[in-house]
Design a protein that fits this description.
Low-confidence stretches of chain A: none
Mean pLDDT of chain B: 91
Helix content of chain B: 10-25%
Radius of gyration of chain A: 12 Å
Structural class of chain B: alpha+beta
Number of helices of chain A: 2
Strand order of the largest sheet of chain A: 2-1-5-3-4
Oligomer: heterodimer
Strand content of chain B: 25-35%
Mean pLDDT of chain A: 94
Largest interface: A-B, 27 and 39 residues
Order of helices and strands of chain B: EEEEHEEEHEE
Shape of chain B: globular
Shape of chain A: globular
Order of helices and strands of chain A: EHEHEEE
Largest sheet of chain B: 5 strands, antiparallel
Number of strands of chain B: 9
Distance between the termini of chain B: 32 Å
Structural class of chain A: alpha+beta
Helix content of chain A: 10-25%
Low-confidence stretches of chain B: 154-162
Distance between the termini of chain A: 35 Å
Largest sheet of chain A: 5 strands, mixed
Protein backbone atom coordinates (compact mmCIF):
# COMPACT_ATOMS: atom_id res chain seq x y z
CA UNK A 1 0.00 0.00 0.00
CA UNK A 2 1.27 3.43 -0.98
CA UNK A 3 -0.30 6.23 1.01
CA UNK A 4 -0.02 9.97 0.37
CA UNK A 5 -1.13 12.58 2.89
CA UNK A 6 -2.26 15.81 1.22
CA UNK A 7 -1.95 19.39 2.44
CA UNK A 8 -3.00 22.91 1.47
CA UNK A 9 -4.98 23.23 -1.73
CA UNK A 10 -4.18 19.64 -2.70
CA UNK A 11 -6.97 18.50 -0.36
CA UNK A 12 -9.61 20.33 -2.39
CA UNK A 13 -8.14 19.15 -5.69
CA UNK A 14 -8.23 15.50 -4.64
CA UNK A 15 -11.39 15.94 -2.55
CA UNK A 16 -9.64 14.00 0.20
CA UNK A 17 -6.93 14.43 2.83
CA UNK A 18 -5.15 11.29 1.69
CA UNK A 19 -4.78 8.96 -1.29
CA UNK A 20 -3.99 5.27 -0.97
CA UNK A 21 -2.78 3.25 -3.93
CA UNK A 22 -2.15 -0.45 -4.37
CA UNK A 23 0.46 -0.65 -7.13
CA UNK A 24 1.18 -3.95 -8.84
CA UNK A 25 4.82 -3.57 -7.84
CA UNK A 26 6.42 -1.27 -5.32
CA UNK A 27 7.70 1.98 -6.83
CA UNK A 28 11.48 2.22 -6.68
CA UNK A 29 11.76 5.94 -6.12
CA UNK A 30 9.77 8.95 -5.01
CA UNK A 31 9.58 10.01 -8.67
CA UNK A 32 8.02 6.64 -9.54
CA UNK A 33 5.54 6.96 -6.68
CA UNK A 34 4.49 10.41 -7.88
CA UNK A 35 3.96 9.09 -11.39
CA UNK A 36 1.55 6.50 -9.98
CA UNK A 37 -0.22 9.22 -8.00
CA UNK A 38 -0.62 11.38 -11.11
CA UNK A 39 -2.24 8.46 -12.93
CA UNK A 40 -4.66 7.83 -10.08
CA UNK A 41 -5.40 11.50 -9.38
CA UNK A 42 -5.06 13.49 -12.63
CA UNK A 43 -6.17 16.67 -10.87
CA UNK A 44 -2.95 16.61 -8.84
CA UNK A 45 -0.66 16.03 -11.83
CA UNK A 46 0.02 19.66 -12.76
CA UNK A 47 0.92 20.45 -9.15
CA UNK A 48 3.39 17.69 -8.44
CA UNK A 49 6.47 19.37 -9.88
CA UNK A 50 6.24 22.13 -7.25
CA UNK A 51 5.39 19.80 -4.37
CA UNK A 52 7.94 18.63 -1.84
CA UNK A 53 7.67 15.11 -0.46
CA UNK A 54 8.34 14.35 3.20
CA UNK A 55 8.35 11.31 5.44
CA UNK A 56 8.20 12.11 9.12
CA UNK A 57 10.31 15.22 9.66
CA UNK A 58 12.55 14.63 6.64
CA UNK A 59 12.29 16.06 3.13
CA UNK A 60 12.94 13.49 0.40
CA UNK A 61 14.49 13.89 -3.02
CA UNK A 62 12.86 12.57 -6.18
CA UNK A 63 15.57 9.91 -6.50
CA UNK A 64 15.23 8.65 -2.93
CA UNK A 65 13.81 5.21 -2.26
CA UNK A 66 10.20 5.00 -1.11
CA UNK A 67 10.11 4.28 2.65
CA UNK A 68 8.33 1.04 3.43
CA UNK A 69 5.08 1.17 5.39
CA UNK A 70 5.23 4.92 6.02
CA UNK A 71 2.98 7.58 4.51
CA UNK A 72 4.40 10.23 2.21
CA UNK A 73 3.40 13.83 2.87
CA UNK A 74 2.83 15.86 -0.29
CA UNK A 75 3.63 19.51 0.43
CA UNK A 76 2.58 22.26 -2.01
CA UNK A 77 4.27 25.71 -1.95
CA UNK A 78 4.14 27.20 1.53
CA UNK A 79 2.60 30.45 2.76
CA UNK A 80 3.21 30.77 6.47
CA UNK A 81 3.53 34.01 8.40
CA UNK B 1 7.13 28.31 28.76
CA UNK B 2 5.70 26.52 25.76
CA UNK B 3 8.06 24.32 23.79
CA UNK B 4 5.79 24.00 20.78
CA UNK B 5 6.46 26.11 17.72
CA UNK B 6 2.98 25.47 16.30
CA UNK B 7 -0.01 26.19 18.48
CA UNK B 8 -3.77 25.93 18.05
CA UNK B 9 -4.63 28.56 20.68
CA UNK B 10 -3.77 32.29 20.84
CA UNK B 11 -0.02 32.82 21.30
CA UNK B 12 0.92 33.84 24.84
CA UNK B 13 3.51 36.45 23.89
CA UNK B 14 4.60 37.42 27.40
CA UNK B 15 5.67 33.84 28.10
CA UNK B 16 7.98 33.90 25.07
CA UNK B 17 10.01 36.94 26.16
CA UNK B 18 12.19 35.06 28.70
CA UNK B 19 12.60 38.23 30.72
CA UNK B 20 13.80 36.31 33.77
CA UNK B 21 16.88 35.04 31.91
CA UNK B 22 19.71 36.24 29.66
CA UNK B 23 20.90 39.24 31.70
CA UNK B 24 23.67 39.79 29.14
CA UNK B 25 21.09 40.66 26.48
CA UNK B 26 20.19 44.34 26.41
CA UNK B 27 18.23 44.17 23.19
CA UNK B 28 14.89 42.44 22.82
CA UNK B 29 13.15 42.56 19.45
CA UNK B 30 9.61 41.29 19.11
CA UNK B 31 7.78 40.80 15.83
CA UNK B 32 4.11 39.86 15.71
CA UNK B 33 2.35 39.26 12.42
CA UNK B 34 -1.40 39.81 12.52
CA UNK B 35 -4.27 38.98 10.19
CA UNK B 36 -5.13 41.92 7.94
CA UNK B 37 -8.50 42.59 6.38
CA UNK B 38 -7.45 42.79 2.72
CA UNK B 39 -5.22 41.01 0.24
CA UNK B 40 -4.56 42.12 -3.33
CA UNK B 41 -7.70 44.23 -3.33
CA UNK B 42 -9.98 41.59 -1.87
CA UNK B 43 -11.75 42.03 1.43
CA UNK B 44 -10.66 39.29 3.84
CA UNK B 45 -12.97 38.03 6.57
CA UNK B 46 -10.68 35.47 8.24
CA UNK B 47 -7.80 33.05 7.59
CA UNK B 48 -7.15 29.41 8.23
CA UNK B 49 -3.58 28.16 8.77
CA UNK B 50 -2.72 24.49 8.42
CA UNK B 51 0.67 22.77 8.66
CA UNK B 52 2.59 19.56 8.27
CA UNK B 53 3.64 19.47 11.88
CA UNK B 54 6.56 16.99 12.02
CA UNK B 55 8.66 18.91 9.52
CA UNK B 56 7.41 22.37 10.48
CA UNK B 57 8.38 21.93 14.13
CA UNK B 58 11.88 20.75 13.20
CA UNK B 59 12.46 23.52 10.67
CA UNK B 60 11.39 26.33 13.00
CA UNK B 61 13.78 25.02 15.65
CA UNK B 62 16.57 24.86 13.05
CA UNK B 63 15.83 28.43 11.93
CA UNK B 64 16.01 29.62 15.55
CA UNK B 65 19.34 27.84 16.00
CA UNK B 66 20.71 29.33 12.79
CA UNK B 67 19.65 32.80 13.93
CA UNK B 68 21.34 32.35 17.30
CA UNK B 69 24.61 31.45 15.59
CA UNK B 70 24.38 34.04 12.82
CA UNK B 71 23.48 37.04 14.98
CA UNK B 72 25.06 36.05 18.30
CA UNK B 73 21.73 35.84 20.07
CA UNK B 74 21.29 34.74 23.64
CA UNK B 75 17.76 33.63 22.91
CA UNK B 76 15.44 33.18 19.96
CA UNK B 77 11.93 31.80 19.76
CA UNK B 78 9.36 31.69 16.96
CA UNK B 79 5.80 30.42 17.26
CA UNK B 80 3.19 30.09 14.51
CA UNK B 81 -0.54 29.91 15.14
CA UNK B 82 -2.71 27.35 13.35
CA UNK B 83 -6.45 27.08 12.83
CA UNK B 84 -9.07 29.71 12.00
CA UNK B 85 -8.02 33.27 12.81
CA UNK B 86 -10.10 36.45 12.73
CA UNK B 87 -8.87 39.86 11.60
CA UNK B 88 -6.33 41.28 14.05
CA UNK B 89 -5.37 37.97 15.63
CA UNK B 90 -1.68 37.16 15.95
CA UNK B 91 -0.49 34.60 13.39
CA UNK B 92 3.25 34.52 14.09
CA UNK B 93 5.55 35.77 16.83
CA UNK B 94 9.33 36.00 16.89
CA UNK B 95 11.38 37.08 19.88
CA UNK B 96 15.13 37.69 19.55
CA UNK B 97 17.38 38.73 22.42
CA UNK B 98 20.93 39.94 21.84
CA UNK B 99 23.49 42.09 23.65
CA UNK B 100 22.54 45.01 21.36
CA UNK B 101 19.44 46.03 19.41
CA UNK B 102 20.83 45.84 15.87
CA UNK B 103 21.37 42.10 16.03
CA UNK B 104 17.99 41.55 17.67
CA UNK B 105 16.15 43.49 14.94
CA UNK B 106 18.05 41.75 12.15
CA UNK B 107 17.45 38.34 13.66
CA UNK B 108 13.69 38.90 13.90
CA UNK B 109 13.52 39.77 10.21
CA UNK B 110 15.68 36.78 9.27
CA UNK B 111 13.64 34.31 11.28
CA UNK B 112 10.25 35.48 10.01
CA UNK B 113 11.46 35.49 6.40
CA UNK B 114 12.87 31.98 6.77
CA UNK B 115 9.66 30.68 8.35
CA UNK B 116 7.56 32.18 5.55
CA UNK B 117 9.77 30.70 2.82
CA UNK B 118 10.73 27.29 4.22
CA UNK B 119 8.23 25.99 6.76
CA UNK B 120 5.27 23.85 5.59
CA UNK B 121 2.41 26.10 6.67
CA UNK B 122 -0.48 27.07 4.37
CA UNK B 123 -2.76 30.09 4.50
CA UNK B 124 -6.33 29.90 3.21
CA UNK B 125 -8.14 33.21 2.94
CA UNK B 126 -11.90 33.55 3.37
CA UNK B 127 -13.35 36.63 1.72
CA UNK B 128 -16.35 38.74 2.59
CA UNK B 129 -18.06 37.71 -0.67
CA UNK B 130 -18.22 34.11 0.59
CA UNK B 131 -15.39 32.73 -1.56
CA UNK B 132 -12.01 31.43 -0.39
CA UNK B 133 -8.57 30.73 -1.82
CA UNK B 134 -5.15 29.52 -0.79
CA UNK B 135 -2.40 32.10 -1.01
CA UNK B 136 0.30 31.03 -3.48
CA UNK B 137 3.74 30.70 -1.99
CA UNK B 138 7.22 29.22 -2.04
CA UNK B 139 8.19 25.82 -3.38
CA UNK B 140 10.20 23.94 -0.72
CA UNK B 141 11.14 20.95 -2.86
CA UNK B 142 14.90 20.62 -2.25
CA UNK B 143 15.75 19.35 -5.75
CA UNK B 144 13.52 21.72 -7.68
CA UNK B 145 14.76 23.99 -10.50
CA UNK B 146 12.99 27.16 -9.42
CA UNK B 147 14.25 29.11 -12.45
CA UNK B 148 12.32 27.08 -15.00
CA UNK B 149 9.05 26.60 -13.22
CA UNK B 150 5.55 27.73 -14.05
CA UNK B 151 2.40 27.43 -12.04
CA UNK B 152 -0.18 24.77 -12.96
CA UNK B 153 -2.19 27.40 -14.84
CA UNK B 154 0.84 28.27 -16.96
CA UNK B 155 1.58 31.60 -15.28
CA UNK B 156 5.19 32.38 -14.38
CA UNK B 157 6.00 31.74 -10.74
CA UNK B 158 6.92 35.33 -9.94
CA UNK B 159 3.45 36.65 -10.72
CA UNK B 160 1.85 35.14 -7.69
CA UNK B 161 4.65 34.67 -5.21
CA UNK B 162 3.92 36.25 -1.85
Amino acid sequence: MLRFELFGELVALAKSESVSLEPISSPASIQDALALLAQAQPALGPWLDRCAVACGDKLLLRGDAVPSDKPLALLPPVTGG
Amino acid sequence: MTSERLVDAPIAIDRLLALDAHPDCGGLALFAGTVRDQHEGRSVLRLRYTAYRPLAERLIREIEQAARARFGLGYCRAVHRLGMLDIGEVAIVCVARAPHRAEAFAACRYVVDEVKHRVPVWKEEFYTDGSSAFVRGCCIRPDHDSHAETLPDGAPRERREQ
